[in-house]
Each structure stands twice: as C-alpha cells, then as structure tokens.
Design goal:
This protein has about 250 residues and is α/β, with parallel strands linked by helices. Helices cover about 35% and strands about 20% of the residues. It has one domain: Rossmann fold (3-Layer(aba) Sandwich). β5 and β6 form a beta hairpin.
C-alpha cells in the first residue's frame, strides 16, 4: 500500500498533556513537519518558556532548553550567538511573550536577531487559570476580569505583529490562525517563510498563531473555533505584515 502520510521524525510518541480540543498539538505538528521537510531537525534548538507548552520538549524531540517566564527571546539570542550554526526557535504564549516578555521580544526584534518566534495567542493565561492577558478582547470575561475587559481600566488588546512590523530588524512578520484546515495550511506556509528567514541568515521572524482555549473560555472545542472566526479574527486579522526580499 502507498503511504500517504507518516508522523514527522521530530514528533515523539509521548501522550499529550494539553486539554481536549487545544490547538497546541496542531502547531507542534506544523513545526515538526517543516523541520523535517527543510532538513533542520538535527540543527534545531527550541526554547520552551513557562506556559501551557512548558513541557513541549516532551512532544517535539529536538534539542531544547527551558526559559524563565518571558525570557525566551533573550535565551534564544544567547544560544544563536554562541552556536550560530543552530536553528533556534522560541515557542511562546501571549502571556509569556506580550506581557512579562515584551521587552525581550521587542529588543530581539530591534537587533534583528537570527531567531524564529512562534507566538500562540489564545487570549488568556491558559496554564495558570485563565487570567486576563495583553491580548484578551474587550468585554472578554476572565478570572481577573469577571465583568469583562474594560479599555479604560485595562487598555486595549495588544497587536504584536503590527507593532513589530514597523521596526527595521524583523524581516518577516505574519499572523495565522488554527481554526480551520484552510487556515492551518496557510499557517504552515507562513511558518516556512519564517524558517527561511533564519535559514538564509536574513533576520528576525515572528508568526503569531491565533488559537482557542476551550477550557478557560468554558466552551466546547467546536464552539471555541467558532469564536475565533466570529470574534477574534475581526480584531486580530490574519495575513503577512512584513515580508523582506529573500524570505519567500
């Protein structure tokens, strides 16, 4: 029989620890597929900081390090500078990257560090109980915004790709979504370009992945995917914000 699909070599057989319906596994598969297709698996070093993906090194079997909360881009910078032959990825959530780690993110981008950032945005602190994050939508109820996020008290949702796209250091910035097969295929194309940016020594690259969080949103997985389409994507539109020459 003809083999139509096989698991990427980087994916381990360890059972997942993610909640039912969580798209982190989809993001892991995309990354693992591209590492294999681009022959980067043995060169890859993934920085896993604090968050839902804190045990990501159990599921993607590359070299890996654990970073303190928010410090992934700083650690990735050190690894890439000390071992420039390595292919260095950070895999971060919105609480980690856009809140406690926003300074490290911005300055790594400003310096044009040759790293690739995968940024999963599910609009809350998923691991620690569903608190409000920088990307929580206005009106969204969380454990720390029980009456809904209020702009006057809490500010507006942070749009990291739009902000970084104004800087000179990044060479590729995009936002994708994990809510449908069409968007997942598009996400893989965007991440491939982000990988190209590092593989060709062009500069900093970031891809935001809009994700659901059925557990903390208190929805079924299907309802959570519908919420992405109806409520989240109008605020966080998908697309490429910056594409420098040589990336595609």
């Amino acid at each position: 029989m003809k083999t139509l699909y096989k698991m990427p070599e980087a994916i381990t057989e360890r059972p997942t620890t993610y909640c039912p319906g969580c798209p982190h596994g989809v993001a892991h598969r995309i990354i693992a597929e591209l590492l294999g297709e681009m022959e980067l698996t043995k060169k890859a070093v993934i920085v896993w900081p604090v968050g839902c993906s804190v045990f990501g090194y159990y599921f993607i079997g590359t070299d890996a390090v654990e970073a303190a909360h928010g410090r992934a881009c700083a650690m990735a910078t050190g690894i890439k500078r000390a071992h420039p032959e390595s292919f260095v990825i950070t895999y971060q959530g919105d609480g980690d990257l856009a809140s406690i780690g926003i300074a490290e993110t911005i300055h790594a981008a400003a310096r044009g560090e040759r790293i690739t950032v995968i940024y999963v945005n599910n609009g809350n602190y998923g691991m620690t109980g569903g608190q409000m994050a920088p990307t929580t939508l206005l009106g969204q109820v969380t454990t720390t915004s029980p009456y809904g996020r209020d702009a006057r008290a809490n500010g507006f949702p942070m749009k990291v790709p739009e902000m970084l796209a104004t800087m000179d250091g990044p060479v590729y910035i995009a936002r994708a979504a994990l809510d449908s097969p069409k968007h997942i295929i598009q996400a893989k194309k965007f991440i491939r370009k982000a990988f190209n940016a590092q593989a060709r020594d062009l500069g900093f690259a970031l891809v935001e992945l809009i994700s659901s969080c059925p557990t903390n949103w208190k929805m079924t997985p299907v309802e959570a995917l519908e919420r992405i389409k109806n409520e989240v994507l109008p605020i966080f539109p998908i697309g490429e914000m910056k594409v420098n020459e040589g990336v595609a």
